[in-house]
Amino acid sequence: MYPAELVKPMREHLTQVGFEELYSAEAVDNALAKPGTTLVVVNSVCGCAAANARPGAIQSLQNEKRPTQTVTVFAGVDKEAVDKAREHMIPFPPSSPCMALFKDGELVHMLERHHIEGRPAELIAENLINAYNEYC
Fold first, then answer.
1. Which residue ranges make up each domain of the chain?
2. What is the domain class of 4-135 according to CATH?
3. Using one digit for the tens of pLDDT, what is the confidence trace for 58-77?
4. In terms of Cα–Cα distance, which of 30, 29, 6, 92 is closest to 43?
């Protein structure tokens, strides 16, 4: 588990643009039970989260079509919430960072760590925008 003061700015990178933090399994289930589309970002302390994942997720929200809600859980910190989010992401193996788009609670698009690591934020945003244009 990472100390709260270490992850605070990493959390705020997403929350300051409107992502809701989820801390419990119940909160994850409740978020995914809402109608519409939900982007779930599994946040991380790794460099690819800072350089690619978070900026890509934020940039993707500049699109005309975007998710009804955006939520985040933090790997290595919010264990219960992350475990529950990952249950909803099956059959994909756990990875962080990662991003998943759900429509009416059903997983419709997934970006695993290997889709994020080494790719610029612009490509990640483009990938998400294509999913938004199809499902949102």
1. 4-135
2. alpha beta
3. 999 999 999 999 999 999 99
4. 6
